[in-house]
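Suppose you are handed a protein chain with no further information: no name, no annotation, nothing but its sequence. What can you learn? This example shows the usual starting point.
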Amino acid sequence: MNADWPYRLREHRGTLLAFVAFVAMFAIYVTNHPAGLNANVATTAANKGVLLAIVAMAQTLVVLTSGIDLSVGMVMVLANCLASSIVIGSPLMTALGVAGVLLTGCLCGAINGLIVIYGRLQPIVATIATGSVYYGVALALRCVPGGDINAGLADALTAQLPGGVPASLALLLALVLIVWLPWRRAAIGRAAYALGSSEMAAYMSGVPIRRAKFVAYTLAGLLASVAGLFVTCITYSGEASAANGSTYTLYSIAAVVLGGVSLFGGSGSAIGAIFGALMFRTIGDLLFVFNLDPLWQPLFQGVVLSLAVCLGALRLLRVRNRLDLYG
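A reasonable first move is to predict its three-dimensional structure. Written in C-alpha cells, the prediction is:
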C-alpha cells in the first residue's frame, strides 16, 4: 500500500495544488478585507464560489470523456428561468417544482449526449447548437426578468447553518457525496476515464463507451440545473441572460483546468475543479479588496482565463510520443 503513494500523489497533484493555491489566496483576501473574516463575508464568498463550483463539476464530467460542454451555462439559465416560475407555493408544490427543474436539466444533458453519440458530431459543435436552443426556451419562459421562489428553500440553500457555516457549502458537499463519488467509483465512471484516455483502446477493450458518454452528459445537465436553481435562490428571480450563460461556461472551463483536469480527458477530479472554481472566484474578490479599477478587472480575469487554458495544453508540448499522454 505504501508503495502506491507516488502514483497517488501524481494522480491528485492538480487537486492538491488547487487546494493550496485557494487557501493561500483566500487567506490574503480575508486578511485585507475591511471586515475581516466573519459569517456574512464567508457566506457571500461561499455563495459565489459554490455557484461556479457546481457548473465546474458539470463541465468536469464531460471533459473527462475527452469532450466539452458549451451548453452548461445555458442549461443553468434555463433552469433559473424555469425555477422562478414553478418552485413556488406550498412545500409539496415546491418539491414538485424542484423535481421538474432537475428533470429538465437531465433532459437537456441527455439530448446533448444523444446528439454526440448518435449524431457523431464533435461535442463543441453539438453543445453550441443545443445551448442556443436552451437559451431560446429560457427566453420564451422569461422574456423579462422576474418571478419568485419559495423563501424557505432559498434561505435553506443560501443562508447560514448553526455556527455561521454557509449553507451553500453543505449543498456542495451533498452534491459531491451524492453525484460525484458514486459516479467516480462505479463502473460507468471508470469507463468514462478509460474513454477519455483513449476511445479506441476503450472500445477494443469492451468498455461501454456510449453509455459512459450518455451518463456523463446527463449528469452534467443535472448539475447545471442545480446551479440554475441555486441562482434563483440567490436572486429570487429568473432572467434569460445570454451573458451570464456564456460567462459561466467559460469560467467553468477555466476552473476545470485550474483544478488539474486535463482537457484531453481521462485525468483529473471534480474535487480539483471545485477548488479551481473557488480559486478563480477568489481572484475577483482579491481585485475588489485591493481596489483595482473595475475597468481593468475583466482584462485581468481574461488574462487568467487565457493562462488557465494554455496551462491545460502545456502538457502536450512536452510529449514526444503521443502514447505518453496516457501513461
